[in-house]
Amino acid sequence: xxSGGNVGSPRAGTLSVQHFTxxxxxxxxxxxxxxxxxxxxxxxxxxxxxxxxYTRILAESATALAPIVVxxxxxxxxxxxxRLRAARLRGExxxxxxxxxxxxxxxxxxxxxxxxxxxxxxxxxERKAAALRILxxxxxxxxxxxxAIVGVSPKTVSAVRKRSAVELPQSTGRIAxxxxxxxxxxxxxxxxxxxxxxDPTVSARKVAAATGISVTTAKDVRKRLRGGQSPVPLRHPAxxxxxxxxxxxxxxxxxxxxxxxxxxHQLRKDPSLRFSETGRKVLRWLECPLDDGVDLAQVIxxxxxxxxxxxxxxxxxxxxxxxxxxxxLDQHTRGAFSA
Length: 339
Description:
Helix 5 packs across helix 7, helix 6 crosses helix 7 and helix 9 crosses helix 10. The N terminus is likely disordered. This protein folds into 4 domains: 122 residues, Conserved hypothetical protein from pyrococcus furiosus pfu- 392566-001, ParB domain (Alpha-Beta Complex), CATH 3.90.1530; 46 residues, no CATH class; 110 residues, no CATH class; 35 residues. The protein starts with 16 loop residues before the first helix and ends with a helix. Helices cover 50% and strands 7% of the residues. The strands form 2 sheets. The chain has a 4-stranded mixed β-sheet with strand order 1-4-2-3. The protein is an alpha+beta fold. Strand 2 and strand 3 form a beta hairpin.
């Protein structure tokens, strides 16, 4: 037995996404194994099989071959089949190796991870196929986590996930590269939107930590609010509480108030409005006269009956003026874009 670095030994079935996205660790020191005892993997990530030219290059190299990785339970090669074949060509009887104590699914993920880090690279088609298989095995893993293992962009993994949505198990969240599970339910997005509405200056990281969503999702919620959209994407089936609500307005009242608050916050920060008398007057016009979430029925109940007609008429006039202002602004915007 040749001495080598002693590493941790996670038991089979207990490995997390962090194990694969970080520097891999194994379950033994470097040892010498008989080449005749080793078997090929049942389902290697390399679909094209052995590249004989690459094997010959390795065999003719004067450099010592790096240790291969072998799954202890089956003696199958997880990583290093070309090195094993090269050792055979050299006439060697043993090869340096380290044992891996994981299940078949974990062995596959590790094989993909190692093939993206060294040796003969996997083709793009092989990496996409590997991404699909990992998503089938671990549907809770985030696109970024899978991308880090497979060696493609998160957008590519997202496209693979969307194309295969019918056959992939449904998940209520994603496990990020650091092993933290982030919820994907629309209620978490709504809570994030409420936090942004209450304090538009709050950081996305703080909102993510408080609501259990990822920082990326928190930033998406903030972006959607600033763009006047609902914090929950319409394509999200869980955003509809039941079939009776499917014909309702896509943006509920609470979301509308949060969107308005965020848009007003952005306008208040705009120097072209803040530092001109007309701009400040416009901001005052746009300020909501009542607090968000106020019970209008309770407010109306406090208005004397003899004042109600005049209050109603003023409200209608203000509403008409603001509607007219919105129409003129729309016309101005369309004219600016067509010029």
